[in-house]
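Entry 14. Ran structure prediction on the chain below.
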Amino acid sequence: MPAAPTPAVSTSALSSCAATDAVLAARRRFFSGAPVAEDALAQPILRSWTRCAARGLGPQSRSRMEPLTDGEFAARRERHETLRRRCRPELEALHAAARAADSIVILTDPSGLVLDTVGSADFADRAAKVALRPGVSWSEAETGTNAIGTALVERRPVEVRGAEHYAEANGILSCAAAPIHDPFGELVGLLDLSGPASVPHLHALALVELAAGQVEHRMFEGAFPDQSLVRFHADPSFLGTAREGILVFEDYRLVAANRPGLALLGLGWDALGAKRFGDLFEGSLGKAGEERRVRTRRGDVAMRLERPGLPVRTIAPRAAPAVERQPAPVPAQPPAQTGPRFDVATERDLGRAVRLMEAGVPVLIQGETGVGKEVFARQIHRRGNRGAKAFAAVNCAALPEGLIESELFGYEEGAFTGARRAGFKGLFREADGGVLFLDEIGDMPLSLQSRLLRVLQEREVTPLGGGRSVAVDFALVCASHRDLKQRVEEGAFRADLYFRIAQYTVTLPALRTLADREALVDRLWTELAGPSPDAPALAAECRAALAGHDWPGNFRQLVGVLRVLQALAEPGEVLGVEALPADVRSAPLEWRGAGRPAEIMPAGAEAGDSASRDLVAVTRAAMEAALAASGGNVSQAARRLGIHRSTLHRHLASRGSRTGH
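Output, structure tokens:
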């Protein structure tokens, strides 16, 4: 789950001259290896400098990123066309507000790639000399400390002025940036206002924050026609403005929100899916259009129900917890945000997969356990033209043959013992208009493969127990950790079905084959730790050991180990190799080189199939250890773990039910 909404960070508290002197003194101490006083720099700047130094960047180094080719850049801009249209009014408004300051306004994608710029042609020419132009990435890992890249890492508005930039060449800039989040907490882009460092930009951070808030506010327009949308604020005069809180409920369950709404209630993004209306407000939703005062735990607020929403039928799981039905538009990714993020090549594959899915071409995702196959599938759904419809997922390896058939095809009343009285229409029909995701399709029984092939050919479904055939329209995405070509050769998978579903195949790389694993470890560690100034750190040898381990369970296993390390660490502690689990210390990776095919696995990698079970045990142990270290204080233990206390409460409740307490 994305991090909780956090306040902006401004570094403009000192006068311009005093701030410059203080920053220059801090630079001299930092780059000479001397400790830097905590009050010498804003903590996000110091954290960013530390990250840059750990990556081996030098203050004289220039950005190594070359602009994308015209074709690549056009594809990236097209992918974010909706964001560009939505942000255009704010780009123009920011430009008008900052015209006198000789500045440019910048829109980037979630990775920091500059999509659009508007503003002073004179300053744009000077900015281009440090590669601040469309088609260039300003991620922190590539360019060092800068407002764009650092705001994306910190997940909050950030201002970086002059010498606060890590690279000396970028000291000509004064920049303020604010991330843009969608209603589900996903980071979708960023707005930046950049100008010459020699000119005061007193209100730049406030301006970009306001603009980002306006963009986020408009994202709710027409986006949730079948859900209950609530607007609220302590001051009724703010209703209808970008400062109002907005919450979206589906059958009284919180499924979407804006940052002001969560902040007004003291919540983070992990409240989505976990909170119900009654947990947040006293009384009922009320009538559409009615404005009334409602009590919350933080006091009274003025509330207006924008749309009453329509009751959404939810299907209770019967004997198959692996089956998931998800009416849109709930978050297109699982709640945990920390995990796979795709490299440039995989992002390119994802863009192609989206276009092919929209053209009716099935997509097959191959890769080991834990590499992010379902994350990839959900992104196909989210970014495509079916994103507003259902994403229906089933794990074919987790269900017995008879249950798979009933789940996929549905059944008529009385089709078999235990069948629902009214029957069940099945996942094919649940996915109508949206995306059907068949995970581990390589384990589907042969007898069902023929029926699946018939549905794909005829686009009609006949439920068990007879009844008329029903036309269906869905996009098909399949995934498997098995080599389906080999399964075909062995006779365990139908060749005609394979060629039907594998018209476009994406193989996601194993974690051990990625080129820059230390940067990956840094990114995951930072996400798990959050913006806490006393967060523990990893020593260089510890980071190297983590980057060099073989990780048969891939991201799932790595994230589990990092959670344990953070749960057991003391505030501000620097963890060495001795803090690592014994198997990580004793089993370094035999380097295979970047780009090695993911099918090449080390001896014993088959154990990755049990990674999810191992992760549950690791997570439980981490929670128990954090509780013990906190003397049973749930809130303190949750802060140590970097999770919401409601998550820990659910763990305690499940522990009690397991032990009978």
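The domain at 513-592+603-659 is CATH 1.10.8.60 (Helicase, Ruva Protein; domain 3). Will compare against last week's run tomorrow.
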